[in-house]
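Known limitations

Files may contain more than one protein. Parsers should not assume a single record per file. Below, a two-record file is shown to illustrate correct handling: read the sequence, read the token line, then continue until end of file.
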Amino acid sequence: MKKKAVILVNLGTPETATPSAVADFLKSFLSDRRVVEAPRILWWLLLRLVIIPLRAKKVAHSYREIWWDEGSPLRVITNRQVADLQSYLLGEYGSNAPVVTQAMTYGKPSLAETVLNLQAQDVEQFLVLPMYPQYSGSTTGAIYDQLADMVKSARNVPDITVLKSFHDDEGYIRCLAESIRASWQQHGCHEKLLMSFHGIPQEYVDKGDPYYQHCLETATSVARELGLSADDWVICFQSRFGPKQWLQPYTDKQLASWAAAGVKSVDIISPAFTVDCLETLEELNLSYRQLFIDQGGTDYQYIPCLNNSPAFIKTLSRMIAEKFPL
């Protein structure tokens, strides 16, 4: 039987919470044409002479606010996902279980490096699992680009399958709904539920990116699973960057609007992320919490990502088996 491997791929993280490490990470991330669609020479100058010098120190400060003793939360939790998923698959499939590892689109370990290392261990078949439930060209599309570059340069092309998205997977939807119910049981059900997804420029969707539709399908399915009415919840988008119009409504604007209208308590979750990271731990749990309280809100409950919860690990295992027969 051919030896198999599953590679969990996430965006990436700076190696340390320092301006220099953040600058290196931003340079790699924001130089990708998939992430920023702009004239190359103009963007190269703007990125290196303006954006990175201005943002590196500020972003490093944000990372320091959420950095753990073990390192970057995204990396630490991803390591836990890998370990727990490997353990679960070994329990289910024994010696037929695939090797489970991780890679980052930007930073270390790179996807190409990971595949090469696995090939050196005689792995012949690969399942690449982007940890982005909703497909976007700016995230999962960048993974396909890196795989295409590998294929173009390989004499013996690796046997690689990609799980393109799982935004409407019933198990994933149930995991989200159960995490919300668990929060309600522990902290009470608040007046509104806000499902916040990472934003992308509106023009990307206008050009055919299915991300908005995927987000809408996820949010609607979760609301249906929870039995919510249209007045109980809203879908919003966070983390906009630059002067372009991004997907709306914006999360920060919605929170301010609710507070101004007299809403005192909210639950907030981000189904776009499967691992807690800067955009959830700092932006949603710290910055937006403060915004809501400053605007007159009193109770703000952030619901963590699925991370390495047993239900999500079981769901990942089932998706792997369906896509990659074991």
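...continuing to the second record:
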Amino acid sequence: MTTPLVLQTDFTEITQLIIAARARAVQAVNTALIDLYWQVGQTISQKIAQAQWGDGVVALLAAHLAQTQPGLRGFTARNLFRMRQFYEAYRDDEKVSALLRQLPWTHNLIILNQSKRPEEREFYLRLAIQEKWSSRELERQFKTALFERTVLNPAKVSAVLSQMHPDALSIFKDSYLVEFLGLPQGHAEADLHQGLLQHLKDFLIELGRDFCFVGSQYPLQVGGRDFALDLLFFHRGLNCLVAIELKIGRFEPEYLGKLGFYLEALDRDVKKSHEHAAIGVLLCASKDDEVVEYALSRSLSPALIAEYQTQLPDKALLQAKLHELYLQNAPSDNAPVDQ
């Protein structure tokens, strides 16, 4: 039986209401569960701190719950200690503790177990909520050392881009991990381009949630000549087109001129009236930061220069560099005290 078009619209509206209600119900259950784990962790922490319980009592509690609450899952001795750790990690930070209830318990455990600093926990909590990462995607971000890379190497953007889009520094990265492409050492630009198209979903996750794919080898016609832009995206949050040019070698200053030309063509011939000026990204295999700084300092285009990396970084090395940075910025014990 064929449903009339007018009824299909009505049915779709009701279906959307059901889906939204289910999503709210799932979130409500998750919030209640996180609240429960917090309260259990708080009780255990306080009783141990007040010497009312020893650590061995937690195992007795787990056995008691297993006996008196048959079918209850997730309350083993190990998990009860995790609940205590969960509470103690966030109890003094009301701003962060409000985020916990927006993520599943699995996500919270990944962030709690793999983060080394409070600011790192907050970084991943906020991004996991914003990007809606699955637990697998969240694990990958830890493997790529996203926090360390973000702190040590913030995105290199032109002054024009910073002025036009102050949020750009928190959206774009200094380097993008494309290890999922499995590219060989001596790959060609066509290999990189084709690989990104074949793994577009993974590349979009690496770029960020608000990026939408528009086209590959996007045609631009200026005068009597035809040009092709490697990759074109749209960013919903920034409300603008994002052009990505691929280079398998190191960054060269002259690349910015061509990218600026493409941005001008996009703004004149492709951009819609309600959209902001297009942003350009040069994605290179390598770059010299001093050359990048010189090139961007006089650039009149809203552009940035980033690297693509075909292998996961040495996270231990990045952590050591970050530790050194924190030591350098730590207040000195011998610093004069204001009177």
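Parsers that stop after the first record will miss the second one. For reference, the second record is described as follows. The chain has 15 helices and seven strands.
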